[in-house]
Amino acid sequence: MAKNMVDTKLLGSILIAHLLLYITFRDISVFWYLYSGAMLFLISYTVFLGKSEKHEKLPYLQLLLYGIFSGFLLYIIFRIGNTVLGFLPGGLDNEVARAYRRFSPETFWHYLALVLILIPGEEIFWRSFVQTRLMKRMEAKYAILISAVLNASVYFYCGLKIMVIAAFAGSIFWGLLYAKKRSLPAQILSHLTFDLLLVVFLPIF
């Protein structure tokens, strides 16, 4: 019976995420300030709601290998996907360039916020909170799909379809990883590896 009841905490968190990201994308000139603040609020919101989920403790070496390898694998998938975009109609390959121009970190504090707030915050909120609550009510495959749709939906406000697609693809990948390992440190390391490759070391544009 309880599984059929509306999860008001989850619903409230999604509404708040949409409101915060709508505000965040209104003015790109202050994007990094607003997005950092939004993620800090969402992290605080999940902590305020109660005890956190128990996560698996992977051996240190396994954690490093799993996190780094999965992040590198997702980067390869995105790189291949970017090549495919060049052969598709709709100008999505041009949107990749616009996304880089609008949202790439430029200053030291941008990189600091990316590593210390945005990457951990996205995994804490979308996987450890949203996906976990969904997984308590349905099969993991449906929870992964729905949480990916919810995650991607907040990027509609940025005005770039490629950001929505990228968020959905990344959420599916990390959702599968989380459902398999239930290790938040592995999630964060995977996300960190991917973002550093995509934005810093080997940008695809």
UniProtKB/TrEMBL annotation:
S-adenosyl-L-methionine recorded as keyword: no
Alphabetical keyword list: Membrane, Transmembrane, Transmembrane helix
Entry GO MF terms: endopeptidase activity
CAAX prenyl protease 2/Lysostaphin resistance protein A-like domain location: 106-196
InterPro entries for this protein: Rce1/LyrA-like_dom (IPR003675)
Any GO BP: CAAX-box protein maturation
Top-level taxon in the UniProt lineage: Bacteria
Transmembrane feature ranges: 31-51, 63-88, 108-126, 162-179, 186-204
Keyword Transmembrane helix: yes
Name of the protein in question: CAAX prenyl protease 2/Lysostaphin resistance protein A-like domain-containing protein
